[in-house]
Amino acid sequence: MPRSLKQLARALRVGLVPLTIVTLSASAVVGSSRPATAATASSLKARADQLAREIAATGSQIAALNQRYDGALYAKQQLEAKIAADRAAIAGDQHAVTANQQILRVAAVNAYVDNGATTSSTGVFSGSDNAAVSTQVYQDVAAGDLSLAVDNLTNAVGRLKDQTANLAAQERQVNQQAAAAGAALSQAHGLIATQEALLQQTKGALATAYAAAAAAQAAAAAQAASQNDFRGHNLGFQGSQTPITPPPATGHGDALVNAAEQYLGVPYVWGGASPSGMDCSGLMVLAFGAIGISLPHYSGAQYDMATPVPTNALQPGDLLFYGPGGSEHVAMYVGGDMMIEAPYTGAVVHNTPVRFGYGFAGAGRI
Prior knowledge:
Elements: H1 5-11, H2 26-30, H3 38-114, H4 128-143, H5 145-227, H6 253-261, E1 273-274, E2 277-278, H7 280-289, H8 299-305, E3 307-309, E4 319-322, E5 329-335, E6 338-341, E7 350-353, E8 360-365
Helix pairs in contact: 3-4, 3-5, 4-5, 6-7
């Protein structure tokens, strides 16, 4: 497996780490093209559940990467603001040095011309002594103050070069970090899109498997009905070797049927358990929840909770399970040889004749 996005987010704290995504082919998820059976349906459901968990984990990791990317952009903005402020300060220093240099030059000229007087009344060459003094003052100013000004300018230019190089290095690092965080986030979104596409393919294959199993069950039921009354068998859960004594009536069968039938026509939604969409076990969660009984959202777990009921003693509200240990499907008996179910993707909650054929695991009462 590639490194996890959580590991990537941690690695971004210390350096730039590329994100590698392994592309999963559809065949790796949905398996071969052999006809769908109850066994393949069970395998597909397990794979789909795993993909759903991976998508949830990837989503939480994307949230963390979003924050890291936002942090990188914030750091970049802060550095850009500092760069702008430093450049403005350096420009001010350059301007000040240039202005001071010009003032000193003017002062030197004035000193030479009027021997440092505040007025120009003293002649420039009023006498040899005066001229010599003025010349000395000019030289002192030029060799002293102007030299200092030039030194200051040189130092300022040096600082400017150093700061510019330092800020440029920081800017490159921040840009690289922001780019790495953005790339990781983008690839994470690509990964979750791939996972979701594979999940949809798996769901489609699973719907086909359920449809094939249902067709096989219907054919087996028709064959059994032509030979004998299957409901005459004393069948509870699969594997029962002795007659099953029906458990006492619960008294809430009609309430369960009414609660379930209010969802007739609601579309099947994988993993759903809400009025907008539900799967087979989600329908039971909602129906039993309406009378104050909490059920796990898994048909196999509901099978484990139920007390076996022989098929010749079914009452409204009893559950009908399919697949090993009830792991593949669950429906509710509503009376009159009918049951209510949420069968597979593309279908809606509906009433249908009870199926006792292929894959039937037994009936139970909760």
